[in-house]
From TrEMBL:
Originating species: marine metagenome
Name under which the protein is recorded: OmpA-like domain-containing protein
A Pfam family of this chain: OmpA
Entry-linked InterPro entries: Bact_OuterMem_StrucFunc, OMP_bac, OmpA-like, OmpA-like_sf, Pal, Pal_lipo_C
Taxonomic placement: unclassified sequences, metagenomes, ecological metagenomes
Coiled coil: none
Length: 189
């Protein structure tokens, strides 16, 4: 009886200790701009009042009251102030004008932060075979790498990997999901 109680207590404590990480509520647009809103609600038992504060950050370089600043040279700095995603047309690895503009910003940031290395992830939408999408994802990652190195980023600081259709940004079988999944992501190592 005591053993059952101890085992049950241990299992309850073990499950309670397995807390999930907080969910990031920020959204990134194609230009690399992120807007994040955090609501905090506090309830006081003594007078039954509820106080709600809202902190908002428009992350094109300005922070509002109560928000800590982004550390220059950090992955957050790169994602928020530069942008980490390049999007592609269907079955293409060509870099359009928007992609080239973003890659110029990425190259400038990488040249300013010479200690940072990156991995370019190539992704595809769900259409096509696994093998086709892995090859297309690799071509997308290589196109981004080649463009960055042509802009002066040291080739030894840039690696590539293809995930094909295995890691969708948005799950779905529609144009909106497919548009978000045809991408490359520059990840700070």
């Amino acid at each position: 009886m005591l053993n059952k109680f101890l085992i049950s207590s241990f299992l309850i404590l073990f499950v309670a200790a397995c807390k999930s990480p907080p969910i990031d509520t920020g959204t990134t647009t194609g230009s690399g701009t992120t807007t994040e809103t955090t609501d905090t609600t506090t309830t006081t038992d003594t007078d039954d009042t509820t106080t709600t504060t809202e902190e908002s950050t428009d992350t094109e370089g300005e922070t509002t009251e109560g928000e800590s600043s982004i550390v220059p040279g950090s992955p957050d700095d790169f994602i928020i102030n530069v942008g980490d995603r390049v999007f592609f047309a269907y079955e293409s690895y060509d870099l359009d004008a928007d992609a080239q503009e973003l890659l110029h910003l990425q190259a400038a940031w990488l040249k300013q932060n010479k200690e940072v290395s990156v991995t370019i992830e190539g992704h595809c939408d769900e259409r096509g075979t696994r093998e086709f999408n892995l090859a297309l994802g690799e071509k997308r990652a290589q196109a981004v790498k080649n463009y960055l190195t042509a802009l002066g980023v040291d080739v030894s600081r840039v690696s590539t990997i293809s995930y094909g259709k295995e890691m969708p940004a948005l799950v779905g079988s529609n144009d909106a999901a497919w548009d978000q999944n045809r991408r490359s992501v520059t990840v700070i190592n």
